[in-house]
Amino acid sequence: MDLTQISLKEDIAHYFKEDDLSRNLFYLEKLPEDEVDCNLFIKSDLVLAGLPWFQGTFEYLGENGFAGEALSQFEGNYLKKGSVIPLGSLPFSKALTGERIALNLLQRASNIATFTSHFVAKAKKYNVKILDTRKTTPGLRSLEKYSVRIGGGFNHRLGQTDMWMIKDNHKTFFGGIREAIAFFKGVGAFYTPIELEVHDEDEFQVALQEGVEHVMLDNFSPDQVRKVIQKKAPGMTIEISGGVTLDKLDSYLIPGVDAISVGALTYGAPAVDISFKYQRKS
């Protein structure tokens, strides 16, 4: 078992606990052990993602190495509807026990990777990075942020302490932007950067005066972005956030914008369709 599978083992154990198979041991003991040939059927155009979780599900059941070699060549690749991926063989009992968990995780990852890839394809020629957010499904942050990267996007923060991100609640609680900046500078994390969320041109001016390196323009219109981008300081990064849908993305691909964060990458990705099928070995 490699480091990836070791790190996922606790999560996958939780997923099996949720499936609650242990309440019917008689059923588990009666499942046939005959070998079955397994295949993935790709039923919509997609970017395939989630191999560590798919394989880890069957590793948890003792089937080390199942599907890893078959899927590794397709992870992150665009696949057309109608593609079939032979995965190898499993005992029927393991295929039946693991299929729903493995497929749920694979589909969730592929949803996000596919959706992210559409944003990335538009933004790439402008050298604008597409970022996720912390708006992830509880228990699935690792999978969802991994999937964004497989789709060509970048992770914003994995957790709160990766970067001090000053938002409205901080400004309100501490009494203003300068006071919030002073608090985080006083936390004592020498290498932890600060990002300031601003909502208008006046707040952007304060960011300039305070020497803030990373600025998020929250819910700015494209015209507002063009106006403040002219004042961008050397070395400053400008991130756009707030309701940037795929349809609206083109209007925000403005010279000087470094990144666009999209919460919907993880909470609003449309579903793709994948089937996991198996039949008795001949």
Q: How are the SSEs placed, and which strands pair?
A:
Elements: H1 3-19, H2 25-30, E1 35-42, E2 46-47, H3 51-60, H4 68-72, E3 78-79, E4 84-91, H5 92-123, E5 129-131, H6 141-150, E6 164-166, H7 168-174, H8 177-185, E7 194-198, H9 201-210, E8 214-218, H10 222-229, E9 237-241, E10 259-261, H11 264-267, E11 274-280
Parallel strand pairs: 5-10, 6-7, 7-8, 8-9, 9-10
Antiparallel strand pairs: 1-4, 1-11, 2-3
Helix pairs in contact: 1-3, 3-5, 5-6, 7-8
Verbal overview:
There is one protein chain. It contains eleven helices and eleven strands. With 282 residues, the chain is of the alpha/beta class. The protein has a six-stranded parallel sheet with strand order 5-10-9-8-7-6. It has a three-stranded antiparallel sheet with strand order 4-1-11. Strand 7, helix 9 and strand 8 form a beta-alpha-beta unit. 34% of the residues are buried.
Count of separate structural domains: 2
Strand count, sense and barrel status of the largest sheet are:
6 strands, parallel
Which of globular, elongated, flat, extended, rod-shaped describes the shape?
elongated
Structural class: alpha/beta
CATH homologous superfamily caption of the largest domain: Aldolase class I
Overall helicity: 40-55%
CATH topology of the largest domain: TIM Barrel
Mean pLDDT: 95
Number of helices: 11
Q: Would you list the SSEs in sequence order as H and E?
A: HHEEHHEEHEHEHHEHEHEEHE
The strand line-up of the biggest sheet is: 5-10-9-8-7-6
- First-to-last CA distance: 30 Å
**In the CATH hierarchy, what is the class of the largest domain?**
Alpha Beta
Q: How many DSSP-defined strands?
A: 11
User: What are the segments in which pLDDT stays under 50 over at least 5 consecutive residues?
Assistant: none
